């Protein structure tokens, strides 16, 4: 009974909470970049006193936004794909092609986690030039987001074999 509660109630709740946190973090960081960029231009050109650290912070924040965007695109299965050949294949072959794609993404993400952890270790020895931020804080987003992507790809792989391949034919822009 307790195990059933965990699978039915807790896991979907945690998933929704994590996805909401990722969405809001993306909005917050993008808003921060926008506001800081406007402030940087204002201080540099109007007040003639530039904010020295703003450009570096914008660049480092952009790294986080790219990883979060990749995670969101993976969750929504909205990456760009060329389906001209796969759409002509029989449904069974499409299933194995999509499964192969999921496996390739999992392997790539596992490598990104492994080397990302090494990069975090190297980042512990570096700090930003214009303000006191350890680069490990920036680099940690890689292993975290790739770990999440592995989970999404595993779910896609399971779905591929239980429900069949996804239909990626053109739907006139109405796909979700």
Q: Which key features would you list for this structure?
A:
mainly alpha; elongated; 0% strand; single chain; 176 residues
3D architecture notes:
With 176 residues, the protein is mostly helical. Helices cover 73% and strands 0% of the residues. It contains five helices and no strands. The model has no long low-confidence stretch (mean pLDDT 88).
Strand content: under 5%
Task: Outline the biggest β-sheet.
Answer: none
Unreliable stretches: none
Number of separate strands: 0
Summing up helix and strand content along with how strands pair, one would put the structural category as mainly alpha
**Count of DSSP-assigned helices:** 5
Summed over residues and divided by their number, the pLDDT gives a mean of 88
Distance between the termini: 35 Å
Principal-axes shape call: elongated
Output the helix-strand order: HHHHH
């Amino acid at each position: 009974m307790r195990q059933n509660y965990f699978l039915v109630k807790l896991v979907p709740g945690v998933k929704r909470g994590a996805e909401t946190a990722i969405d809001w973090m993306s909005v917050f960081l993008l808003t921060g970049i926008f506001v800081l960029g406007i402030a940087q231009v204002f201080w540099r050109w109007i007040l003639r006193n530039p904010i020295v650290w703003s450009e570096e912070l914008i660049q480092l924040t952009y790294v986080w936004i790219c990883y979060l965007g990749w995670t969101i695109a993976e969750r929504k299965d909205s990456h760009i794909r060329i389906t001209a050949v796969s759409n002509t294949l029989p449904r069974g072959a499409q299933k194995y092609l999509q499964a192969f794609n999921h496996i390739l993404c999992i392997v790539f993400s596992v490598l990104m986690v492994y080397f990302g952890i090494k990069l975090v270790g190297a980042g512990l020895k570096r700090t930003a030039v214009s303000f006191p931020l350890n680069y490990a804080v920036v680099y940690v987003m890689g292993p975290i987001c790739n770990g999440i992507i592995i989970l999404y790809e595993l779910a896609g792989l399971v779905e591929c074999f239980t429900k069949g391949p996804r239909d990626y034919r053109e739907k006139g822009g109405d796909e979700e």
